[in-house]
Amino acid sequence: MSSTRSSLGVKMIWIVLVMVVLAVASFVSGFYVGSVVVEDSSFVVVDDYGRTVKLGGTPERIVSVAPTPTEILFAVGAGQQVVGVDNYSDYPAAAVSLPKVGSFTLNIEAILALNPDLIVASDLVPLQQLELLGDRGIPYIIFADRTLEDIFKTIRLAGVVTGHVDEADQLASTLTARLEAVTNKTLAVGVSKPTVYVEYYPMWTYGPGSFGDDLISLAGGENIAHNTSTEYPMVTDEFVIAQNPEIIVYTSGVMSSTTAETIAARPGWTSIAAISGDDIHSIDDNLLSRYGPRIIDGLEQLAEILHPELFS
User: Fold this and answer.
1) pLDDT above 60 (res 99)
2) Dist CA 202 CA 224 (whole Å)
3) Residue 77 in contact with residue 21, Cβ under 8 Å?
4) Residue 46 and residue 17: Cα distance in Å, rounded?
5) Are 254 and 222 in contact (CB under 8 A)?
6) What number is the average pLDDT over the span 185-212?
7) Same-domain status, 20 and 49
8) How far is Cα 75 from Cα 155, in angstroms, rounded to an integer?
9) Is residue 30's pLDDT more than 80?
10) CA torsion angle for 240, 241, 242, 244 (degrees, to 10)?
11) 1 lies in a domain?
């Protein structure tokens, strides 16, 4: 990490950090980012797990161990600081050629060989794996967003941590404008709210408190799993049939074999309104499962599926 910051630079960073904390405080739900304190050339942040993390300065060698933080880091302009990524980080293209360090089981030796000064993870990475790195003196930050506004907060935080405040703020502002362009239509008075079943893996869907549930609501729909007991419930055929969704959306990707035909062929599903009305659609899995900048692409596509009359 750089050790040549001037006192003026430190003061400026302190001002920016305070502004970011104040700006994002109202966005937090469940998980949170707390205070930021500058001490000489170092600063302390509180990540989305409530962990206090001290950094000795702007990180110059970052290893991202999940696809979502990889996309965020590159999107805020910190791509050149990323020296390694997890096995599933395939976007943007510049991340594909970087050294791979494992996925749910991290290759600790490979990470250490890259001499990182910061690890950035999502909540999908087992905490025990990250603690192995922390025990070796490598700080790590966890991003764990639950709503779209949380994503904007994380983007700004990533900009602060990596020294790309202006880029991150511009990105978050652009994404916010795109979000508002959608919701000005989908949440307008008098717009109907069709019932929706979104399947991200066979028979798995988004429940209350998840960003998927948030997306459905913002896109102008009513999530049939909104009143289930968990954020990511596995549902039964009987549940979906009883809820009788008007629209079905499934995610497609390299790890999915689901098609509109396989959904329509499920026993008993022919009586569902979405199937009898041929209202089954697909969205790229990465646009819904990765809570980074491209989540707005997913929202725009979902809104057009639910309300084609508003986007024709």
Assistant:
1) yes
2) 16
3) no
4) 12
5) no
6) 95
7) yes
8) 9
9) no
10) 90
11) no
Mean pLDDT of the 251-262 span: 85
Tell me the two tokens of residue 123: 């909540």
Query: For residues 82 and 311, what is the distance between their CA atoms, to the nearest angstrom?
Result: 38
pTM: 0.84
The DSSP line for 95-114 is HHTSPB-BSSSB-HHHHHHT
Backbone φ and ψ for 196, nearest 5 degrees, come out as: -135, 140
261: Cβ contacts below 8 Å, ≥ 6 apart: none
The token duo for 36 is: 């930021």
d(CA 113, CA 91): 23
Shared domain for 148 and 248, answered yes or no, is no
> Across the chain, what does the average pLDDT equal?
87
Q: Token digits for 187?
A: 């949440």
Q: Does residue 241 fall inside a structural domain?
A: yes
Distance (Å) of CA 112 to CA 91, 106, 245: 23, 11, 49
Give residue 192's domain range. Answer: 188-310
pLDDT value for 123 = 86
Contacts of 90 (CB under 8 A, 6+ apart): 67, 96
What pLDDT shows up at residue 254? Answer: 65
In sequence order, the β-bridge partners of residue 106 are 102
Burial of 227 from C-beta contacts in 10 A (0-12 / 13-18 / 19+): exposed
Q: Does residue 2 lie within any of the structural domains? A: no
Site of tokens 């646009």: 287
> Strand 37-39 to strand 42-46: parallel, antiparallel, or no bridges (unpaired)?
antiparallel
Looking at the 3D structure of the chain, how many domains does it have? 2
